[in-house]
Amino acid sequence: MAKKSYSVTIAGGGSTFTPGIALMLLEEHDRFPVDRVVFYDNNAERQEIVAKACEIYFKENAPDLDFSYTTDPEKAFTGVDFVLAHIRVGLYAMRELDEKIPLKHGVLGQETCGAGGIAYGMRSIGGVFEILDYMEKYSPNAWMLNYSNPAAIVAEACRLLRPNSRIINICDMPIDLMDKMAHMCGIKDRRELQYSYFGLNHFGWFTEIYDKEGNDLMPEIKRHMAKNGYMDGFETAGDKAQHIDESWVHTFGKAKDVYAVDPETIPNTYLKYYLFPDYVVETSNPDYTRANEVMDGREKKVFGACREIIEKGTAKGSDFEADAHATYIVDLACALAENTLERFLLIVPNDGAISNFDPTAMVEVPCIVGKNGYEKICQGQIPQFQKGMMEQQVSVEKLVVQAWAEGSYQKLWQALTLSATIPSAKIAKDVLDDLIEANKGFWPELS
Ligand code: NAD
Ligand code: G6P
Ligand code: MN
Q1: Cis omega before residue 163 (within 30°)?
Q2: pLDDT digits (tens, 9 = 90+) for 223-245
């Protein structure tokens, strides 16, 4: 059957990831034909810079593509097959506060983990729902592939409050880790790896890795992890690759210590925030956090390249590059559109996939994806150590969503208190009171 052409809306048109993803869509045109792309953002000024540059690029490289950009939801979400969503409610200015406010109280500040992740979650739920509601109003059969963070909290909010929505929440961290593990084993394409994995988003473990002939790669990967963490998996992808800034490189190295805590499994890098929070605080600069690194790095680079294209009126010789790392998004869209039945790690209701864990938890497990959605692959029983950690963390995530839905100060205080990154209820309260102040206008009123 001939492939139809798809209409795609990118929500968060002004994101630093938008040009890379838009160009990647063009590159993957043969297997995922896209004839219409719309950028949507609620910040016209920010989006316009990215969109005008992309418009010039498309005119030169894909003249048949029907491209537009808008802040009007009706225009953005009518006649759409897929919505790719990567919004950041509050922009980097609020990310900076999420990172710096907890540090002032001696606890770590991170985009998606601990107090910072909780603060971002309280902002993000409403933004993602807004887009989901527009999609459902104007294109009820469309799928939303969401990677707006904090994905764990957003996914739990969807489970509780939008249970029938056609939204799939996904994260690219395990993809990068699989790239690195493939590289450690001399395998070029991570898609050749067969894996088992369980956990929550930014909170999980690989338990099995095989090559395409079914040979066990765990012994070799474990040898590398014990020696150098993920560092042996680094490819020299130049400055185009994601996760190459100094702080990320540290994180990949620190995975050695994270691995040592349970050498039976291969950990997600984000576990460092829960297992070594004291180390993270000690090695953080309270005046210059990851948000500053991103604003001085990725944001300047992407927006600089866009401005240059606009000024010159051509994208020839520009810094624009497809985000090769993001092809997993096309893999997922293809699976839904073409029933490829490929395996993806998705954030989905547990419902027995991890047999000794809360059935109502949103877990990250491998799934087979096809035209009718996903089927989970059972991961069976998980060990006591991980189960204990996950029970604590999933309770944090559930309490945040309940706090958001009910406007409950008490529940948000409990969420912060329960986070493994925060040592006491007192510190949790102090951090919370500062976060409430900083997030006026973004969070629901709490009482
Ligand atoms: P960014 O600030 O550059 O871009 C986000 C854009 O979203 C901005 O242009 C902003 O105006 C827009 N936006 C905010 N609220 C909106 C709303 N309600 N409606 C429409 N647009 C809205 O941020 P970035 O660093 O490029 O990251 C974008 C998002 O992608 C973040 O949430 C980030 O955490 C996420 N991300 C997730 C993964 C993953 O693995 N899940 C990977 C990379 C990035
Ligand atoms: C990883 C995570 C994402 C996160 C991204 C960017 O890919 O999976 O959830 O948003 O890193 O982080 P950065 O600090 O570069 O903005
Ligand atoms: Mn992620």
Answers
A1: no
A2: 999 999 999 998 755 545 678 89
59 closest CA partner among 242, 309, 240: 309
Residue 92 CB coordination number (10 Å): 17
Residue 18, CB-side half-sphere exposure with 13 Å CA sphere? 35
Please check the confidence at residue 164 and state whether its pLDDT lies above 50: yes
Indicate the top mutation candidate among 9, 48, 86 to test ligand 1's pocket, ranked by most ligand atoms within 8 A of CB: 86
Position 350: which residue type? Answer: N
Q: Which residues are CB-neighbours of 229 under 8 A, at least 6 positions away? A: 252, 253, 254, 255, 256, 257, 258, 259
Binding residues: 95, 149, 171, 202, 290
Q: Output the known binding site for Mn(2+).
A: 171, 202
Q: Please check the confidence at residue 1 and state whether its pLDDT lies above 60.
A: no
Mean pLDDT, to the nearest integer, of 26-37?
Answer: 95
Beta strands in 218-319 (DSSP E): 266-267
Contact indicator for 16, 299 with CB cutoff of 8 Å: yes
- pTM for the structure as a whole: 0.97
Closest-CA residue, ligand 2 atom 8, reads 173
Summarize the confidence of residues 125-145 as an average pLDDT.
98
d(CA 340, CA 346): 16
Longest dimension (CA), the chain: 62
Tell me phi and psi for residue 207, to 5 degrees.
-115, -25
Nearest CA to ligand 2 atom 10: 149
Q: Does position 291 have pLDDT exceeding 70, yes or no?
A: yes
Q: How far apart are CA 420 and CA 358, in angstroms?
A: 19
Distance between alpha carbon 362 and the CA centroid of its chain, in Å?
Answer: 15
Measured from the Cα of 92, ligand 1's closest atom is: 2
| Residue-averaged pLDDT of the chain | 96
Q: Are 289 and 96 in contact (CB under 8 A)?
A: yes
Q: In what order do the strands lie in the sheet with 66-70?
A: 66-70, 34-40, 6-11, 82-85, 143-146, 167-169, 342-349, 362-370, 373-376
Whether 151 lines ligand 1, by a CB cut-off of 6 Å, is yes
